[in-house]
Design goal:
Blueprint lengths: L1 H59 L2 H4 L7 H8 L11 E2 L2 E2 L21 E3 L7 E3 L20 E10 L1 E2 L4 E2 L14 E12 L2 E3 L10 E7 L6
Antiparallel strand pairs: 1-5, 2-3, 4-5, 5-8, 6-7, 8-9, 8-10
C-alpha cells in the first residue's frame, strides 16, 4: 500500500514537472511570436514613413506627373482639358502615378494606353491599387489587388482640380470649392500610404509633419510641358 502511494506521488510530481515545463515552453513561444509581431509592426511603420517620404520626393519634381499622362488617368485629362463631365473642386479623384521612363511626347492629342511593364509608383484607393510588403518591396501588380498581412502598405495618390486663379497661380474658383465650368488651372495632388492593421486598411490622409500623406499644388502647365 505504501509502495503504491509512493508510486502515485512520484507520478503526480512528474506530471506537475511536465506541465510546468510545457507551460514554460508555450510562454517562450508566445514571447517569441510577440517579439516577431512587434518587430514586423515596427518595420512596417518605419517603411510606411519612408515610403511616404520617397513618394513625396518623386512627386515634388513634377517629372513622374508628366510621365503619367496615360489613358488610365482619364479623369485627370478631362479636368485638365475641361471635357466630358464637369470636375468638382470638392472631390478627390483617384489617379495613378508612373515612374519616369523613355516614352513619346504627349503634347497635344489623346493620352495613350500605358505600355506593358511600365512601373507604377502609386495608385488610387480603388483604381489600380499599388501595394508594398512590410519590408518596402513592391507586391505583384496587378495580381495583388487588396492589402493584407503580406502586402500591408498601399501607396495612394488622388487629385482635386483647381479652376480659379490663373494657370501660373491656380486657386479655388469659389471659397470652399465648387464645380468647374472650364479647364482646370491646376491641381492639389495628395500622395500617401495606407497601412493594413487588424483586418482593415487605415489611412488618415494626415499631411502634418510625420503624417501618412503629403499634398502638392501644381499648375496645369506642369501637365502640358
Amino acid at each position: 500500500m505504501k509502495l503504491n502511494q509512493k508510486g502515485m506521488s512520484l507520478l503526480l510530481i512528474l506530471m506537475i514537472i511536465a506541465t510546468v515545463s510545457l507551460l514554460a515552453q508555450m510562454n517562450l513561444v508566445l514571447k517569441s511570436l510577440n517579439l516577431q509581431a512587434d518587430w514586423k509592426n515596427s518595420t512596417t511603420f518605419t517603411n510606411k514613413n519612408s515610403l511616404v517620404f520617397a513618394l513625396a520626393e518623386q512627386l515634388s519634381s513634377e517629372i513622374p506627373l508628366q510621365f503619367s499622362r496615360y489613358s488610365i488617368n482619364a479623369n485627370l485629362e478631362n479636368c485638365l482639358k475641361g471635357i466630358n463631365t464637369p470636375c468638382d473642386e470638392r472631390t478627390s479623384y483617384d489617379m495613378v502615378l508612373f515612374a519616369p521612363v523613355e516614352q513619346q511626347s504627349f503634347q497635344g492629342g489623346l493620352w495613350p494606353d500605358a505600355p506593358p511593364g511600365v512601373l507604377l509608383l502609386a495608385g488610387g484607393k480603388t483604381i489600380s491599387p499599388v501595394l508594398y510588403r512590410f519590408s518596402g518591396a513592391r507586391c505583384p501588380y496587378p495580381t495583388q489587388a487588396e492589402a493584407n498581412d503580406f502586402c500591408p502598405l498601399q501607396a495612394i495618390i488622388q487629385f482635386k482640380p483647381l479652376c480659379g486663379g490663373t494657370n501660373d497661380i491656380p486657386n479655388l474658383s469659389v471659397p470652399g470649392g465648387g464645380v468647374c465650368t472650364g479647364p482646370a488651372t491646376g491641381f492639389d495632388i495628395t500622395v500617401g500610404v495606407a497601412r493594413f492593421m487588424n483586418g482593415r486598411l487605415v489611412y488618415h490622409e494626415n499631411i502634418k509633419p510625420g503624417g501618412d500623406a503629403q499634398v502638392f499644388r501644381f499648375s496645369s502647365n506642369a501637365l502640358r510641358r
